[in-house]
Amino acid sequence: MDGRTFRRWCALGGLMAAALGCNRNATQQTPFGPMPDPGGVQMVNMPVNGSGSSRSLWGGSRGPTTPVELADNSKRPASAESLVAVADVRLEAALDEKTPGNKEALLDLARTGYQKALAQDPKSKAALTGMARYYARLGDRDRALEVYKKYLTLYPSDAGVAHEVALAHARWKDWPGAVAWCEFALKIDPENRAVKKTLGFCEAFAGRWDDAFAALCQIMPEAQARHNLAGLLDHMGHADASRVQLQLALKADPNFVPAQGFLAELDQPNDPNGIRQASDTQPAP
């Protein structure tokens, strides 16, 4: 990849690597007020509420159990955590392009695994987040938000899961929704640096440049914040605005090498293939 593409990847990687409907009849809200409703889903008034043969990930019988298999016919039923662990493996396999066979069958097995775990323990953190991630990764926003909402009703102080919902909205390219969930997560944990970084990136993609800059400046020096904004602007096709941010970054810190290198790239002509020549300068972490 060329230098500019590499910078875009580094700027976005931390946000995306990450790397995911509701009951309207409830009567109690979270301690932090109504949940955000960025995606058109009602988010207020949330409910409180040995050895042996095994089956492979595909559901067929085979030899001794392995760490990623469930002993369905053991004397003791598998725990919710074990059911979730197997469902997680099946989900990953179904979404892996290299996995042969019937991926729809694997998805069904993963879903039923999460559902069995929830039937066994409706308050299981692993089962609730597993089920939510299952729906989120399949693009079923309503069901994903419903399960995430149920989790945060039971565990309202978990800023990490609230951040996860923000990242799910980012993957859906629902930037206002991602911003709303970041703000909700920061109500739980106001000093969470990872959430602040995600907030800054999402605000940038939502076109809220001043807010994005303010959020990033809370966790990094001005020059680095402007360099990151420049990468996002360039990624979105705003080369002139990107150049301005790099110039401001160098005004704040004339010795900030990543901005120097990036600006030099922007000022270089494209090669015959339409790719701007890359310098050896590495992007800011």
Describe the structure.
The chain is mostly helical and 285 residues long. The chain has helices at 3-16, 80-95, 103-120, 125-137, 141-154, 159-171, 175-188, 193-205, 209-217, 222-235, 239-252, 257-267, and strands at residues 53-55, 61-64. It has a domain at 79-154: Serine Threonine Protein Phosphatase 5, Tetratricopeptide repeat. Helices cover 57% and strands 2% of the residues. A hairpin with a 5-residue loop joins strand 1 (53-55) and strand 2. The radius of gyration is 23 Å and the shape is elongated. The model is unreliable at 5-58, 60-74 and 274-285 (pLDDT under 50).
Concise description?
The protein has 285 residues and is mainly alpha-helical. The chain is 57% helix and 2% strand.
CATH architecture level-2 label of the domain at 79-154: Alpha Horseshoe
Strand elements, count: 2
Strand and helix order: HEEHHHHHHHHHHH
State which percent range the strand residues make up: under 5%
Main sheet: which strands, in order across?
A: 1-2
- Calculate Rg over CA atoms: 23 Å
Largest sheet: 2 strands, antiparallel
Uncertain segments = 5-58, 60-74, 274-285
Number of helices: 12
- CATH fold naming of the domain at 79-154: Serine Threonine Protein Phosphatase 5, Tetratricopeptide repeat
Overall pLDDT level:
77
Q: Which term fits the overall shape?
A: elongated
Oligomer: single chain
CATH class of the domain at 79-154: Mainly Alpha
- The N- to C-terminal Cα distance equals 18 Å
Structural class: mainly alpha
Helical residues, percent: 55-70%
The CATH superfamily name of the domain at 79-154 is Tetratricopeptide repeat domain
